[in-house]
Design goal:
- The chain has 375 residues and is an alpha/beta fold.
- Helix content is 25%, strand content 28%.
- The chain is built from 7 helices and 24 strands.
- The strands form 8 sheets. It has a 5-stranded parallel β-sheet with strand order 5-2-1-9-20. The protein has a 4-stranded parallel β-sheet with strand order 13-12-11-17, covered by helices on one side.
- Helix 1 packs parallel to helix 6.
- The chain is globular and about 65 Å long.
- The model has no long low-confidence stretch (mean pLDDT 96).
Length: 375
Amino acid sequence: MKRIIIIGTGFAGLTAVRQLRKLDSNVNITVINKTAEFLYYPSLIWIPSGLRKGDDLIVPLDNFFKRMKVTFHAGLVTGLKANGRVVITEKGELENDGLIIASGGRFIKKLPGIEHVITPCEGIVAVETFKQKLQQLEGGTIAIGFGGNPKEPSAMRGGPMFEFLFGLHTQLVKEKRRDKFKLIFFNPAKEPGKRLGPKAVGNLLKAMEKRQIETHLGHKIKGFEANKVITEGGEFNADLILFMPGMTGNLWFDQTELPRSEGGLVKANQYCQVEGMDKVYVAGDSGSFPGPGWMPKQAHMADLQAKVAAENLLAEFSGAKAQKTFTAELVCIVDSQNAGMLVTRTPNRSIVLPTMRLFHWSKRWFEWWYLRQYR
């Protein structure tokens, strides 16, 4: 019986499990992660307003793994050997006949003073810290922005920051405190969110103007102080700073022979195969894939890549060649707590639909639909 190891319990890792079981009921699957839990990152945006609590977004995976006949190995991966056939963890080594790397990315924390900012996609603790500090403020300036990895254009996560920004405005209006706060959005690009498409950029900037959100755009970020954002175009004070850095590869990649992109991610081809390695695949934020520069690092893209990786790996087990490919596809609802803007993009088209309450409720419905697979 073939043995497959999947590293990670995020979107890509769990989708790979489901796809493998859909296609093969007998293959041996082992999943490695620190905990047997799934965190639904897209709904972190609703924690500051109280629409969601941290526990709402964590799904224990014991029942899911039991249904899927998966062996779970609790531990951190520290390296690979034997060209990927052996995964080294803090609790021992595991052999495999096929490997899918779905361990996510790592935020680049190199800017001076970055310890003074809150990075919300680091998880529940970070967002709850933001919520607590926001509640303690009676007024002041709140700065929200994101950066990128200059060596890996796709390795950024800007969408959630627009959602935190617009959601914060809505929350402060509901609390009748909006007039006490100045909101500033900052970004090194002159057209933030360009990967969503040119029309989306215009809509986002108009949405900021409508909400009286100030902008500081087109200036490289130099660093932070406890109450200050510093850029090459000047600096400004802020009582609270929310910032999403660009992403790179996991630290344990450094203890392997995995081929790396210039930006530090695992190099893969259109079949999600890791370049130069046999039956080793990558999906989601861990990988650097061929395709357009706007290809997103988001859950939907990770799911598409994970399905391709699982199908191609099983094909190789049967003696066939990997042939399944994925399409670069961005699907995003930029939520503002009570409404949302729908943005979709493929190589052939780009669609932006105006902000409507329907899209907010669609996002909430999708959360329920997606999580029920694992509960």
